[in-house]
Amino acid sequence: ETLARLDRAHLIHPVSSWRDQEEHGPRLLSSGQGVWLTDMHGHTLLDGFAGLWCVNVGYGQDSVVKAATEQMTKLPYATGYFGFASEPAITLAARLAEVTPGDLNRVFFSQGGSDAVDSALRFIRFYQHARGMAGKRHVIGLARGYHGCTYAGAGLTALSVFHRDADVPLAWQHHIPSPDPYRHPAGEDGSAIIAASVASLRAKVAELGGPEHVAAFFCEPVQGSGGIVVPPRGWLTAMREACREMDILFVTDEVITGFGRTGPLFACEHEGVVPDMMTVAKGLTSGYAPMGAVFMSETIYSTIRDGSPPGVAIGHGQTYSAHPVSAAIALAVLDLYQNGVLENGVKAGAHLATRLAAMKDHPLVGDVRSAGMLAGIELVTDKKNKTKPAASLGISKKMAKAGYEQGVLFRAFGDDIIGLAPPLTCSVEETDLLCDRIEGVLNTLMN
Ligand code: PMP
C-alpha cells in the first residue's frame, strides 16, 4: 500500500498511460525464476513476454549473477574514454566479432537499444562526411517500425504514439510501407510484397533526389512493436541488394530479434544477409543489466577513421558506454546461448508455431505468425473482411484482466494483436502451458 501510494505520487512510468497509472497504481513484480514471475500478492505468472522481450535466458541464472558480482567486486566501473578500457569489454567485443554476420567486426557499446540506434545514426553521418558525401543525409525506415525513443530513434520509429507532440520525424527521416503479409495491399503473395517494398524504396529514394541524398535504410528483420510483422522469406535479401545497388547503407535493428529470439543468434542469418550495420540490446545482457551495441563493417569503420585528422577524438560516447559489469554479464549470457539456450529456443519455437497454427481456427483469430520464440496473434471480428475489433469492445483491457486471472503475461498491441516472446529457456511443457493459457484468454473474449 505504501509503495502503491509512493508510486502514484512520484514515479513516471515509461510507455504507460499518464492517467490510468494514478488511478490503478503499479503492477509490482517481486521475484522471478526460470520463466516464472511472482507479483506482490504472491500470484505466479508465466512470463510469455520475457520481461520486455529481453530476458531470453530466463530469470535466476546463477552464472550471470556470479559474473556480475565478481566484476562489481573487482572493478565496478571503467570509462572507455581517452583510450581506457576494461577486460570484459574487450573480451566481449572480440567474442561478438566471432559470431556476428560477415565483417561486422567493429562494435560500439551503448546502454540500451534507443541509444544504439542513435549512435548508429551518428556513425552513419560521420561515415558520409568522411567520404566527402555530406549531402547523403536522408534515412528511410518502415511504417510500423520501432527504433527507440531518443529524438532520432522516435523519429525513425513509425508508431504515432511516439510522434505525438514531439516534432518528429526529423526532417531527414522518412518511411515506406510495412511488408505485412496479412494486410498488404498486394495480397499475401510473398513475391508481390517483396516487389512492392523494393519499388517503394526506389520511389522514396527518387523522391528525395536520388541515392546521392540518401544515407541509409533501417529495418527490423521481424517488426516487433509494430505488431510482430514477419516479412516473407526473401524480403531481407531483396532489400539488402536494392540498398547495395544504390549505395545506401543497409542497417538491421536486431534489438528484439538478436540473440536467438527468432532461432539463430541473429535474424539476418535466416537468409545469410550481412548488413552494413546492426544494432542490438535486450538479449545481449538478457535484461540482467542495461547494454546495447552497434556493429559496423570494417569498411565503414576504416572510412570514418581514415577520414578523421590524427588526434581528433570520436565525438560520441557516454559515461556508461561499454560498462564493465554489463559486459561481464553479456559474456556469461553469451555462454548460456552457446551452451543449450539457443538450441532450446529453436525447439520450443517449433512447438510454439505448431500450437499457434491450431489457434487459427478460433473464431476471433485472423492470423498467427511466428519466427522462433517471437509470435503474434491477430484478432478480427470478421475473418473474411479482416475487420479489426472496435475500440468499444475494450479487448486489450479484457485481455489484461483475463491474462492475470489465467496466470500469463503477454503483450497486447492495440485491441487486435497479441504478442508473445517467452524466454528461450521455456520447456516444451511450459510452452504448452503458455498456449493453453493464451487460449483461455481468447475464450474469455467470446463471452
Ligand atoms: N529498436 C527496437 C527494434 C526495439 O524493439 C527497441 C525496444 N523495444 C529499441 C530499439 C529501443 O531499445 P531500448 O528500449 O533498450 O532503448
UniProtKB/TrEMBL annotation:
On the tree of life, the source organism's domain of life is Bacteria
Q: GO terms for molecular function, please? A: transaminase activity
Keywords of the record, alphabetical order, are: Aminotransferase, Pyridoxal phosphate, Transferase
Q: Which cofactor does it need?
A: pyridoxal 5'-phosphate
What CDD domains does the record point to? OAT_like
Q: Which residues form a coiled coil?
A: none
State the InterPro entries in the record. Answer: Aminotrans_3, Aminotrans_3_PPA_site, PyrdxlP-dep_Trfase, PyrdxlP-dep_Trfase_major, PyrdxlP-dep_Trfase_small
Does the keyword Transferase belong to this entry?
yes
Family label: Belongs to the class-III pyridoxal-phosphate-dependent aminotransferase family.
Indicate what this protein is called per its UniProt record.
Aminotransferase class III-fold pyridoxal phosphate-dependent enzyme
> Which organism does this sequence originate in?
Acetobacter conturbans
Q: Taxonomic classification, please?
A: Bacteria, Pseudomonadati, Pseudomonadota, Alphaproteobacteria, Acetobacterales
